[in-house]
Amino acid sequence: MTTTGVSNDVSLDVAADLAAQLRVDSIRCSTSAGSGHPTSSMSAADLLAVLVTRHLHYNWDEPHEPVNDHLIFSKGHASPLLYSVFKAVGVVSEEELRSGYRRFGERLEGHPTPILPWVDVATGSLGQGLPDGVGVALSGRYLERLPYRVWVLCGDSELAEGSIWEALDKASYYQLSNLVAILDVNRLGQRGATDLGWDVDVYARRAEAFGARALVIDGHDLSAIDDALAAAADGLASAQPTVIVAKTIKGKGFSEVENSPDWHGKPFPPDMADRAIAELGGVRSLVIRGPRPEPAEPGPALAHPSTLAPQDQLPKPSLERPVYKVGEKVATRKAYGDALVALGARDPKVVALDGEVSNSTFAEEFTRAFPERYFEMFIAEQQMVAAATGLAARGYKTFASTFAAFLTRAYDFIRMGAISLADLRLVGSHAGVEIGADGPSQMALEDLAMIRAVHGSTVLYPADGTSTVALVEAMAETPGISYLRTTRGSFPGLYADGEDFPVGGSKTLRSGADDQVTLIGAGVTLHECLQAADLLVADGITARVIDCYSVKPIDVGALTAAAQDTGRIVVAEDHHPEGGLGSAVADALLAAGERDFRLTRLAVSGMPGSGTGDELLAWAGIDAEHIADAARQLTASV
Amino acid sequence: MTTTGVSNDVSLDVAADLAAQLRVDSIRCSTSAGSGHPTSSMSAADLLAVLVTRHLHYNWDEPHEPVNDHLIFSKGHASPLLYSVFKAVGVVSEEELRSGYRRFGERLEGHPTPILPWVDVATGSLGQGLPDGVGVALSGRYLERLPYRVWVLCGDSELAEGSIWEALDKASYYQLSNLVAILDVNRLGQRGATDLGWDVDVYARRAEAFGARALVIDGHDLSAIDDALAAAADGLASAQPTVIVAKTIKGKGFSEVENSPDWHGKPFPPDMADRAIAELGGVRSLVIRGPRPEPAEPGPALAHPSTLAPQDQLPKPSLERPVYKVGEKVATRKAYGDALVALGARDPKVVALDGEVSNSTFAEEFTRAFPERYFEMFIAEQQMVAAATGLAARGYKTFASTFAAFLTRAYDFIRMGAISLADLRLVGSHAGVEIGADGPSQMALEDLAMIRAVHGSTVLYPADGTSTVALVEAMAETPGISYLRTTRGSFPGLYADGEDFPVGGSKTLRSGADDQVTLIGAGVTLHECLQAADLLVADGITARVIDCYSVKPIDVGALTAAAQDTGRIVVAEDHHPEGGLGSAVADALLAAGERDFRLTRLAVSGMPGSGTGDELLAWAGIDAEHIADAARQLTASV
After folding, report:
1. CB atoms within 10 A of CB A66
2. A171, B196, B208, B244 from B201: Cα distances, Å
3. C-alpha dist (Å) from residue B142 to B66, B180, B459
4. Which residues have a Cβ under 8 Å from the Cβ of B25 and sit 6 or more positions away?
5. Which residue of A433, A591, B551, B624 shows the fewest CB atoms closer than 10 Å?
């Protein structure tokens, strides 16, 4: 059977035929690739057939059309189904589906990524598509103010991820009636039954308790699906997200595998695939499109909790670009808040998120200045980064902040953000032992290593207010994952306004023709390096001091010059010894082919406790005294 | 007023007096330290006063008494309250409370850590104490089979963390009636109201939907608290965890700050503290202990889902220590499963967890052999690591496995595990681009950097079955956070049974007197290094090959010898360039003072897509050809 047509009014009979095609194509592409998840695709084929033909408003010729709905496969392993949908709407060819799936150099990857223009975010790490969808829906409802819907297909296994519940919590808090989660409850995970099996009522109760409207349906009853999707789509004026709990059968449509726990993530061998395709009525070549979105202008601004908060409790911050004096004490976290406000005043695409610590990170200044562009994520760091990913997919320049230590909570989301090709701007405050009394749970000592290891990341770590402002501005123009590490305490300004701080650069604060040693720091340790240089004067040792504010990329030229000029380098960092600033310096020097230098790395090698910042810097051996000692030893021994 | 006594039958009047003392002491210690969270302590003081005097069964003289209940402050910032409790039961002195809190070198840290013998796990990163408590409760119910209860005090802000819901989901799935979560709903987070405020009914509905029994009370009504705690304690024979939803007032007891959003995390200045203490009736010196646990023997084994699963579907694995032949192809993940079973047969303390991928990680072999010691955590990696932390606190040797990529989901829990002084044994399979078709979402390319940066961690990465078995055995005896990275594909055995693989060692597989270059690999890249050495023979280049199976600690001796003997080193790793094997090698050589060597590091510097493992190893430039090329360039240029 071959039918081709573009229609806004596809009957359920045709949708049924399309569902069979989606199953057949899911089987064909995974069998051709020798890997993939046909059975997890088949359980959701009816849901997708009805959605795509009758409810998803999408101009397939213009994937970047602002009023398009969004379709996110949170269960990214059902990529055969998604790609079969793309074939069914005519944007992926039969040839590509058959020979491009999961192949080297092709775009139909094992799990969807935004290499494909119809994919908003990369999925495949479960429990992330729905949180990402919250970000897209926030944009649709409050920023773009367009009537599009965000349809997210979730697996039931991934409902065990707490991030799903963070997402529903925020979706209801922000009244995201434009968000529809479709739960494909096929009962079976990778290695057997899920913990709730087919207990769809429990899923519904959980969704309702988290503030969603829940609709329980038979996920293979096209009429019931149609009604539920229509109800979900109609809810745009309501104040609740919708969760459609669809009871389905894994492998539905092929009797040999239906509801079997033994066929997760396995393509059918060719003979089995032939039998399955025969049972499903053979290969089809339907090309069918559903409704296109109506043109729409942005609607009126809607109130949300940040806009409703009594902003006048605290004075409005200045919208001017902040200027700090040399010697003036300012915390870099405060400079972040000041800079973000100024950036937001210039660029309406700047948006801020925070994990309920905005009065510590100083994101609260942005909240007061631009409440409509601030979304409180409460203590849900995974959702915070996911929302940033969704907002980035909609073109917003989102800055997401929390204590640097708690960004570790979201590492999987940061990693997936890189795969999503998202521009994520992350800001971590209260780095290192410098924070003092709160103790190790609040001290970021792994964050530099964590973010450096992410593909294409940028890691910035300013030591004063002026450089912070410049680096926040640089982040706004930096693609990929960028990270700003800020410090709790206030330290004297080092740079005059107007100084340039390119990403990948550094500043040499002390230098002379006969420098005997180079001291490299960033953030708090730069101030210790400067003090150490002063101490060394008494020993007759002249030290070069470099502010390595750009940890990745790092200033190879300045480092190699230092190695060549002084032959001795001390690096001090408020971070564990592995993967941070010291590693970045060592990596760069070795990669540049430098050999004739000696390097002493000072870092936090023990497990800290509470104390004052000064006590702990001394205990860790990264204060001025220890840096000076290391320099003395290096200079004495050669 | 001064009353001293140890009693099993403390009246509520005395508990009321104790509550006032706990508030006063929380104020005193935080004011003395100049930091801390008095108001968050005061909201929960009534709950703790009744709990500690009448329901917590604890022998304070013997904190390691197996039948003791457990008290976990998931809201770790309420440490002033916890330490005031410790003073009230007479295990912390007035002097220590007054001068030891949050001070350098003292044990009353800003957030509780197990430096204190009455603390099971470190908290302070919110949303972790309850998941940790699930691990303790699993031990109590199924492994130790003792009638102790696990009482966890949670804040309301932390209920926004998805990990809390992962914990309740698993607590109900495993029928942990010995677990009681006490929610201190004081309405106020750090920067203002929580998203649900005082809507205690919503919290109750959420808890019930997640399978718990919920009891809503006024958290300042001692009689209501007493009834709820009694009901919770009585539930031991039931099949549900209990969640007590206590509506409380932040700063309760001091009218100047009650229910104020402006007093989060701030100690009162001395004059205010004086007024607060006066309002609370002055300083008290009650020393009161509640009931001691009855002696108890382990009860009968209880069925749980793993023991109820139809284990006979698959054959029982061999309990023998596995032996693989040199040249025999085996996947290191399979060897992990084999080794774990043999370890479990020898040591009844060995327990396994997995994140619903046990048929990929091969933890399923352990499930089949010892279902009573296996706990399926489904797709909830945070809860998996937290459960391992709780089980470690009870003395079990827990191995927790999932795809290495998804351990990133639990990074904050791993970091906190180190602060908890927990011995966590983590196993990540499917590392790197070698996995092929599934694409980047499933490829661990940051895991070595992530775990290396954790304090006191051990990172192991075997290349064959024999070394995997030895390293799994070594992990059983390794303190702290240890990590085993395994590979998807099968590779030929390199070592005969009986070979020794000490942590911190390496194996030199090829070497001679006139080696011109050293090739260093681990896991899949070691096999590529061996092939590269073969290729180089045709060029007349003799290569040393080192299996760097212990990435941290690393074999400094073998590396420095290689640098000195060959002067040229190529390191290849299936990981991003930052913080992994190459960094470990570079760090070690520089730290050892080596200077006269040249190092080429090959790693995955691009963003991979799908493909075959071989295609992707070649694309990344970490296959035998690229390693050989790097060696040729190094040897040609000197």
Report:
1. 15
2. 19, 10, 10, 11
3. 14, 17, 30
4. B80, B83, B84, B87, B88, B97
5. A591
Q: Peptide bond before A114: cis, by omega within 30 degrees of 0?
A: no
Instruction: Check: pTM over 0.95? Answer yes or no.
Output: yes
Q: Which residues of B touch A163 (CB under 8 A)?
A: 162
Give contacts of B 78-97 with A, CB under 8 A: none
- In chain B the first and final C-alpha atoms are separated, in Å, by 84
C-beta separation of B129 from B152 below 8 A? yes
Q: What mean pLDDT comes out for the span A339-355?
A: 98
Q: Would you state the pLDDT for residue A65?
A: 97
Contact residues, B window 301-360, toward A, CB-based 8 Å cutoff: 305, 309, 356-360
Do residues A556 and A549 lie in contact, with contact meaning Cβ atoms separated by under 8 Å?
A: no
Q: Please tell me whether the peptide bond between B553 and the residue prior to it is cis, using omega within 30 degrees of 0.
A: yes
Q: In angstroms, rounded to a whole number, what is the distance separating the alpha carbons of residues A459 and B254?
A: 45
Closest by CA to B288, choosing from B32, B56, B38, is: B56
Residues 6+ apart with CB under 8 A from A416: A121, A122, A123, A124, A125, A128, A389, B441
Contact by Cβ (8 Å): B118, B86: yes
Rounded Cα gap, residues B409 and B488, in angstroms: 20
pLDDT on residue B89: 98
Q: Do A409 and B411 touch (CB under 8 A)?
A: yes
Helix/strand/coil for B308: helix
| Closest to A122 measured CA to CA, from A132, B283, A305 | A132
Cβ pair A445, B455 in contact under 8 A: yes
Cα B514 to Cα B170: distance, rounded to the nearest angstrom: 59
Distance CA B122, CA B114 (A): 6
- Dihedral (Cα; A361, A362, A363, A369), 10-degree rounding: 180
Q: With the CA atoms of A376, A487, B35 and B131 taken in that order, what torsion angle do they form, in degrees rounded to the nearest 10? A: 50
β-strand partners of A216: A245
Q: Tell me the percentage of chain A whose pLDDT exceeds 70.
A: 98
Q: Is A442 in Cβ contact with B110 (below 8 Å)? A: yes
How would you class B31 by CB atoms within 10 Å of its CB: exposed for 0-12, middle for 13-18, buried for 19 or more? buried
**Contact of B36 with B266, CB cutoff 8 Å:** no
If you average pLDDT over every residue of chain A, what do you get? 96
- Alpha-carbon distances of A583 from A589, A629, B456, rounded to whole Å: 10, 21, 17
Mind giving me the DSSP string for A271-331?
HHHHHHHHHTTS----EEE-PPPPP----PPPP-HHHHS-GGGSPPPP-SPP---TT-EEE
Ranges of chain B with pLDDT below 70: 1-8, 310-313, 638
Token digits for B307?
């023991």
Spatial separation of the C-alpha atoms in residues A533 and A215, rounded to whole Å:
68
Q: How high is the ipTM of this complex?
A: 0.97
Q: What is the pLDDT of residue A638?
A: 54
Q: Is residue A381 annotated as part of the catalytic site, yes or no?
A: yes
Out of A157, A360, A379, closest to residue B158 by CB: A379
Query: What is the SS3 assignment for B416?
Result: helix
Three state DSSP letters for A396-417: CEEEEEEEHHHHHHHHHHHHHH
Cα A519–Cα A525–Cα A560 angle in degrees, nearest 5: 30
Alpha carbon of B27 to those of A90, A439, A600, B57, B254: distances in Å?
A: 68, 19, 44, 27, 10
CB A150 within 8 Å of CB A357: no
Say whether A602 sits in a helix, a strand or coil. Answer: strand
- Residue A500: what pLDDT? 97
Q: Is residue B362 a contact partner of residue B472, using CB atoms and an 8 Å limit?
A: no
**For range A630-636, the mean pLDDT:** 96
Angle between helices B162-173 and A162-173 (to 10 degrees): 130
Q: Which residue has the tokens 């009638």?
A: B147
**Would you tell me which residues 374-393 of chain A have a C-beta closer than 8 angstroms to some C-beta of chain B?**
376, 378-383
